[in-house]
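Follow-up to my post from last week.
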Amino acid sequence: MSEAALKTEKAPILSAEGVSKRFVKRLDLAGKIAQRLGSSIREETVHAVDGVSLTIDEGEVLGLVGESGCGKSTFGRMVAGILPPSDGNLTFDGRPIWRDGKPVSKETALAVQMIFQDPFASLDPRMRVLDIIGEAPKVHGMVSAKDMDDYVAEVMQRVGLDADFRRRYPHQFSGGQRQRIGIARALAVKPRFLVCDEAIAALDVSIQAQVINLFMDLREDLDLTYLFISHDLSVVEHISDRIVIMYLGRVVEVSPTDELFDQPNHPYTQALLSEVPRIDLRKRAYQPVKGEIPSPLEPPSGCHFHPRCPFATERCAAERPALREIAPGRWSACHLNDG
Amino acid sequence: MTGGGAEPTLSVRGLKTHFFTREGVVKAVNGISFDVAPGEVMGLVGESGSGKSITGFSVLGLVDAPGRIVEGEILFQGQDLAKLREEELRKLRGSKIAMIFQDPMMTLNPVLRIDTQMVEAVVAHRDVSRERALEISREALVKVGIAAPDERLVSYPHQFSGGMRQRVAIAIAFLNEPELIIADEPTTALDVTIQGQILYEAQNLCRDTGTAMIWITHDLAVVAGLADQISVMYAGRIVEQGPVERVLDAPAHPYTAGLIGSVPGRNQRGRRLFQIPGMTPSMLNLPDGCAFRSRCPHADSACDVEPPQSRIDDGRLVRCVRPMIAQATDGTAA
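User reply:
Got it. Predicted complex:
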């Protein structure tokens, strides 16, 4: 992928260049002995993220969409400073996030916060809400111990929680309220960038709408930038300025939201868009994409999508398509665009 | 609700399923009625705790203690399932009535091969040889779009992907050509492209075999594309019921309208979504009157009394004293 890919005019707040993440399943003792004795057993490598380059401008909401196993969450974790990349550079505000597998600075780590999918698993059940939200700002010296109570109350109000509940435990809250606690915890350290990993997927429809609105209000009030990871295209469509579509570890299309939905370029994007159930489409005949998502352990050669693509040619099986600019601001990785 | 004149496959009348817990009585399903005609798909929509899954379990007699059906009739082809003994119910389950669960591993036994499980399901209900049963199983797998069925028959569930497992579960549900299928959030855990495949198969199977289907989901968009009729549940009651087009285009109950408004869609990008304030009430102490009252923008003192189910002009049933469209003069309950 071209190193100059996806440059925009303003200096981006986040940029990724050729970022990859490989997970290697090491052999156990029995496996090693078998290998010594001439067995064909090998270490298995999963290319969870394979050479992703993209940029996010300050104040932008970038939607990252893909199905299970496409590497969208792994990418989010690398951005959030949780998981070191195997290759490539990630910079935040011009400074690298990772060096030699370690986060470079505390400031960056605080400025980029993550909101998780499961509001039941992401909160410590034995901590009071006061400590869940207040611990990080206290540890990092952002508030003194005596101001913590007021500070937490203020953050809770901002996300729409009743500050009187701050001495309660997570199990005393509903799913939607827990998700707000998770958001409050992230906001408590005054971040500039939020990575939302399926942050509303586990919520009921009416609660989803409340949390989407909260995200949009916070963006306005606090000038936040989002990397919004989701498998739900209608949610991403609603909230994002630009959308990145991933398939099996690679970016297949990048486009401003309206243009993506009006004229999807990549065959995978087209298939994905046509499969999304929409409330305005009635009694439709479903036309399924053929085949399953291949195992990331043995991804198909060339373009990863070619075994399921209705337009695939011989070239698609042989050669990996580069992500190319097909119109201003629009990028797609498909050989069909070469005419 | 009419099903085109045909005798309904399933007709539920005034069903109440309550759970008698130490803290009190949870009225999970509190007096609901609906019909499903042959070949028809009814979408049963609601949020967590609305009682939609318990409705499905009640029809199949799968409600465990401390819950039980306290009132109502479940007429399946004229026979009241609520009065049947356990062994009679067992004969119906898996043959005339089948269920598809959200998690396919609730249907599949992890330590048995697919062929063992499928053949068993066939010979338990039909007088056929094992060879013929294997043939039927194979055909069922082909019907749900599984490539290389012979190879798949001798595999174990863990060798399948999530989408493929769900397709096997659906194949098992259709094995004995049931008259009624209850599908409880069968595509919620699946990816979009796989969900499309499952919806496609379900649609075809219903159309081809005349099977009636209850599709339980929280996802209005799925129901919009699949169902003929829709029943919206809130706090144990059906608040609105009618043809999909009518209910989704011009919702009469404020809760339905709120739900539809909450779904992010095409023409409102970047704008604030309509949000229903508050959250679903605890089922333990439901307030008197309309359960949606505290969240409803139109509520007033008239809502302090439990609203009756009334029929509005286009034949829809609504449980609201102030439906959002004009009400028929003979507001009678079904």
